Amino acid sequence: MERATRAAYSAVMWLVRPLLRLKLARRARAEPGYGEAVEQRFGHYAFAPPGPGYVWLHAVSLGETRAAVALIARLRERLPGMRLLLTSGTATGRAEAERLLAPGDLQVWQPWDTPGAAQRFLEHFKPRIGVLMETEIWPNLCAACERAGIPLVLANARMSEKSFRRTEPFAWLARPAYRSLAAVWAQTEADADRLRRLGAPVAGVFGNLKFDAEPSPQQLAAGRAVRAASDRPIVMFASSREGEELLLVQYLKQKWPSPLVSNGFSAINIVVSNIQWLIVPRHPQRFDQVAQLIARQGFSVARRSEWSGQGATPPPADIWLGDSLGEMALYYGMSDVALLGGSFEPLG
Which residues pair with 236 in a beta bridge? Predict the structure, then answer.
């Protein structure tokens, strides 16, 4: 039964490969990273040095990659000379992961979960262990690791109630994958309970690795210097998502004092115009879109990508746009107040 269900799943994953290629080509128009080394996603590594001996770590996207920073640092302490193989699934995760590479390390795309791609990945790199971050369980890849005798673990594991309800109808496929893992370390007891119900061998509950990450002291210092030099308080709208920036900018437009009116301003009008606003969108593919949105509402905008140097003073503008990756410590250091996005539209 288990073989039959995974065979059906494998057939579907094989058939949708052309759709994956189309999706990657479409996304590459906005994020060129998706057009790089596409054949790696299908298990072809002509320009990647083969194994053996890699410690393989998979962090699918930006958040998981940042959570892996502290873990990678500890692995390097415990395993001097370790050769790290980093795999990613998104362009932002891949760009962030590149910062974590040391001499001898390697970075490739996560293999698409067909039996052939998974097998070619393992035969080429021959990792001695695999570490998956948070939620990345792929049935064929798990089965291939089990057959090859490669211990595969899930670190910083999470399983929300919503994800659990979505996974339950596919338990026939998910349970063998979770059971095949060598160990699972969960973020919370609730995560651990749901993972155990799916057959995962939970070995401990250690909290969220993201809280172990240390912000860059250089970025914090540069941000605080900007804040100290500013003659206005700086308020940041961080990790904003689609629709949320428009809400903020429209509100600011409504409250911003008009040059055609010389009196009658309320306290809120004065406060709004005396703040230096900073917007940092969550998704980099939307940077240009948000810059255009700000300009269309009649505000001047200065983009981080156009400032020179980490500690440079931003040019005067109604709204600053944080359109860079890996600099959140800089932005938080700059800010007197931070408003977190993701809650002002029905996004979760």
Answer: 278, 338
